[in-house]
Design goal:
single chain
Length: 282
């Protein structure tokens, strides 16, 4: 059951970037704010139904987790606009896997002893090999380096998104969805106002992206449950299977890769999946 719960975020996070590009549109600020709004509205519904209790300490941690998530989300949505979904997803996956796995394993002590660390690092290298192959990094253009640099720097937001939840005391991960969603909405609003230099009074694309937020909310809420059931490393690594869905669907639906490129990408993704399961086995 824990494994199945851990795979739900992968499915919906895999759909999410293609949903943004194909169905909702808008610029990266509208996408981030619309997503945060959709997540927040979904969390209000869940809160009204279940009325879960949470301590002030945990509320603040979940809120900060959601607020800082916007740093990573702004970088990712901006990169989607510049390079496309199928090019960005393997790279952002690598950055997130490295950061979250090492934070969980070494800072929070989820890898015990030299054997766990050895197996975990081997799995990490296999994941990276799959990412490099699937994205054709040997053919990466110099003009793209700036985009990848932004992805790397903004990945700290995603690391914080997972890391802050480790310090909560509640065993009910879903109880943190409402404050985390509130943080996502507030952070998205700040990013929009700073970037667009105006209030989102009647933003058509921002409203359309609320639907993307609902898709994201399914992944986000179940990820909180998975964190408590599977631990940071396993829960996070399982979510990164979303790269398979996002990359392949992006390549086919958005016409971002040719037939030959898709074959190479599929080989890389198969290697990436192998690395994921090696890391989950620790």
């Amino acid at each position: 059951m824990a494994l199945l719960i851990g795979l739900i975020p992968a499915l919906f996070w895999g759909i999410y970037p293609v949903w943004l590009k194909r169905l909702t549109g808008g610029n990266f600020l509208e996408q981030v704010l619309g997503t945060g709004t959709g997540i927040f509205l979904s969390s209000i519904v869940i809160e009204l139904i279940f009325r879960m209790q949470i301590s002030p300490h945990d509320f603040i941690l979940y809120f900060l987790s959601g607020f800082l998530w916007n740093i990573g989300q702004v970088g990712q949505c901006w990169s989607f606009m510049n390079l496309g979904v199928s090019a960005v997803m393997p790279v952002t996956t690598a950055f997130q896997v490295i950061g979250n796995s090492l934070v969980g394993a070494w800072l929070f002590g989820e890898w015990q002893g030299w054997q766990d660390n050895l197996v975990g690092l081997v799995g990490l290298l296999v994941v990276l090999a799959g990412v490099f192959i699937s994205n054709g990094m040997v053919q990466m253009k110099k003009s793209d380096l700036g985009v990848y640099a932004v992805l790397l720097l903004t990945s700290v937001g995603y690391w914080s998104y997972s890391g802050f939840t480790h310090f909560v005391t509640s065993t009910n991960g879903l109880a943190g969805f409402f404050p985390q969603a509130m943080g996502m909405f507030c952070g998205g609003l700040v990013a929009y106002m700073v970037g667009a230099k105006r209030l989102p009074v009647s933003d058509h694309f921002g409203l359309r992206n609320i639907t993307a937020g609902i898709v994201f909310a399914v992944a986000s809420s179940t990820y909180l449950v998975s964190l408590r059931m599977n631990g940071l490393v396993s829960a996070f690594v399982l979510t990164q299977l979303n790269v398979v869905i996002a990359t392949i669907v992006g390549a086919i639906v958005l016409h971002e890769k040719s037939g030959r490129q898709l074959i190479i990408t599929s080989i890389g993704l198969a290697i990436l999946i192998a690395g994921v399961f090696i890391m989950v086995s620790v």
